[in-house]
Amino acid sequence: MGKQTLLPTLLITLFFLAPSAWAGDCSITVDSDDAMSFDTDEIVIDQSCDVIELTLTHSGDLGIEAMGHNIVFTRAEDLEALAQDAMEASDDDYVPAGDERVIAATDLIGGGESTTLELDPSLFEEDGDYRFFCSFPGHWGAMQGEVVIR
Ligand SMILES: [Cu+2]
């Protein structure tokens, strides 16, 4: 192998050796809108991340009172009951305070806003079955998805 081919070969090797070092894995953005939807139906939790920066954006125009969105993480089996109880928690942005079923939650935002949550991947067990959803009243049925642990 000549000197000229060595450097590209090295760079290509490094590229494939270090996929988990790319920032993309530990930095996730989910968009929401005025049509009551997230732009993804799964969120990947990469256990090799020290922390995952989860950013929720709202590309709509409607305000927080009419079309508020958040992302709440819970176990699949708790989803429905938690979503029902969350509707009553209007004083706490629809995330019941101190509720053990809430694994993590972003702030509630309205159109044009965004919020970032520092998420600890160790909150999720590798063989657990988790969901994320929006806990604004009436939204969880349309705004939910699967959490993929990796
Ligand atoms: Cu919502």
UniProtKB/TrEMBL annotation:
Keyword Lyase among UniProt keywords: no
Subcellular location(s) per record: Periplasm
Domain Blue (type 1) copper: 25-149
GO CC, one annotated term: periplasmic space
Organism, as annotated: Natronospira elongata
Sample GO molecular function, one term: copper ion binding
Signal peptide: 1-23
Alphabetic keyword roster: Copper, Electron transport, Metal-binding, Periplasm, Signal, Transport
Pfam families documented for this protein: Copper-bind
Role summary: Transfers electrons from cytochrome c551 to cytochrome oxidase.
Entry-linked InterPro entries: Azurin, BlueCu_1, BlueCu_1_BS, Cu-binding_ET, Cupredoxin
Protein name per UniProt: Azurin
